[in-house]
Specification:
CATH superfamily of the largest domain: FAD/NAD(P)-binding domain
Strand content: 15-25%
Low-confidence stretches: 425-429
Number of domains: 2
CATH class of the largest domain: Alpha Beta
CATH architecture of the largest domain: 3-Layer(bba) Sandwich
Distance between the termini: 50 Å
Structural class: alpha/beta
Number of helices: 15
Largest sheet: 9 strands, mixed
Shape: globular
Number of strands: 17
Helix content: 25-40%
Mean pLDDT: 93
């Protein structure tokens, strides 16, 4: 049986008993590939609608990005409202904002209904790495206030210094509608909720082939599932399962670190409050305090499956860049996990056949959006979902070079972001 990567998230979570691998030929209404947020939410909502559902997971529940991400339950899309309006127009941009709000409400309702304990704390702050970035954040606030959403508090550089102990930022916006949590605990809670609703989960059951048709068939090493409908929720772990889908995402490995336990004074001088923080730098640092008194931080990207030989020192470099006062601090955990990005920075959602649905490419915002998209997938199978149609209608372009040039593409992106962040004069101040 596969073990979970040695992350801080896994060290703090109570793992579920192992689910048995698939054996023999089985029949279900819906077969779902992957046991992350999208798949488990879709399975739960389909079960609530009366469907007989099977989830097939190659490793363990939450083994991928759903159990390894930075734990930030964000608000809005990856692109903020000024950019969404420019790309898609006023109406669609407003609809996308509403989806992000609904995603937060779904999180809270699921946790309340199924008593999911995942160490959630309120507060999600975006810090501006440049003056131009701060102006964009403030423009975003003005637009959503025009929608009647008064969810943000703004900070200039002086007032921010009392909250965030990093000297790198020009200002920030914070919302208490969003927050942060242990992502693996949340994923395990969704799995338990799905099982309680009647869903069958098989771990260590990688899908090797999909036979299209009505019904369709999922082939695993020791069995198969025939189903009226299927869902692919593999995200950055899609592999070679579907070439067309793989060409529209760029899987990258995002590295993270957790410090040794810090004293209360040190922690309060880093983040004075319970909020988590992310920044607008090209490297996109994200950090938060944990319930056991550590600081965790996202520390750059790399090639999936090929972490830097000096991963610990690489993470320490990012940590010290944001917080120079932490130079030399001990890191108790360093880990990585795949996320999948799209060129649009929006989820890639759609159908591969009339009875085969998929969702992938959350570009770092899957903790909030993926369970919501899972619910939309369930609604689309049951009847119809305007939100599913909205997301499916967003144009998605292939990653240049497709799967053949993924490694050079990741290396080029990594080099460019690191270099530009270092050269940006405003960050040197």
């Amino acid at each position: 049986m596969a073990t979970y990567p040695p992350s801080h998230h896994a060290s703090a979570a109570r793992l579920l008993p192992e689910f048995t691998p698939l054996g023999g030929d089985q029949r279900y209404d819906v077969a779902i590939v992957g046991a992350g947020y999208t798949s488990l939410s879709a399975a739960l909502h389909l079960a609530q609608l009366g469907y007989k559902v099977c989830v097939l997971e190659a490793q363990r529940v939450g083994w991928g990005a759903s159990g390894r991400n930075g734990g930030q339950l964000g608000i809005a899309m990856v692109e903020l409202q000024p950019q969404l309006i420019a790309l898609y127009g006023e109406q669609r941009a407003r609809q996308l904002w509403d989806i992000s709000i609904d995603a937060l409400e779904l999180f809270h309702s699921l946790c309340a209904e199924y008593q999911i304990e995942c160490d959630f704390r309120v507060g999600n702050m975006a810090c501006a790495a440049t003056p131009a970035d701060l102006n964009n954040l403030l423009d975003h606030v003005l637009i959503v206030e025009g929608y009647g959403s008064h969810v943000y508090t703004s900070y200039d550089r002086d007032s921010l210094s009392n909250i965030c102990g990093s000297p790198r930022y020009y200002g920030a916006i914070n919302t208490n509608r969003a927050g942060h949590l242990n992502p693996l605990k949340y994923c395990l809670g969704l799995a338990q909720a799905a099982v309680t609703a009647g869903v069958t989960i098989h771990e260590m059951s990688p899908v090797e082939k999909i036979c299209f048709g009505d019904p369709l068939k999922m082939i695993c090493p020791d069995g198969s599932v025939t189903a009226n409908y299927g869902i692919l929720g593999c995200n950055g772990y899609l592999g070679k399962l579907n070439k067309a889908m793989a060409g529209r995402i760029l899987p990258v490995e995002n590295y993270q670190a957790a410090t040794a336990v810090l004293d209360d004074e040190t922690l309060s001088n880093l983040i004075n409050g319970d909020m988590c923080i992310w920044d607008t730098s090209r490297s996109v640092h994200f950090f938060r305090k944990t319930p056991d008194g550590r600081l965790t931080m996202g520390c750059g990207i790399g090639i999936p499956g090929y972490p830097p030989r000096n991963l610990r020192s690489e993470c320490a470099r990012h940590l010290e860049f944001v917080y120079p006062q932490l130079a030399g601090v001990e890191l108790d955990f360093v880990w990585g996990g795949n996320l999948a990005g799209t060129r649009s920075h929006m989820p890639d959602v759609g159908t591969l056949a009339p009875n085969l649905y998929y969702a992938q490419g959350y570009t770092g915002h899957g903790l909030a959006l993926a369970p919501m998209v899972g619910k939309y997938l369930a609604q689309a199978i049951q009847d119809e979902s305007p939100e599913f149609e909205l997301l499916a209608g967003i144009p998605q372009r292939r990653v240049p070079g497709g799967t053949a040039l993924r490694i050079p593409a990741v290396l080029a992106y990594r080099f460019t972001t690191n270099t530009l962040d270092r050269l940006d004069r405003s960050w040197a101040k």
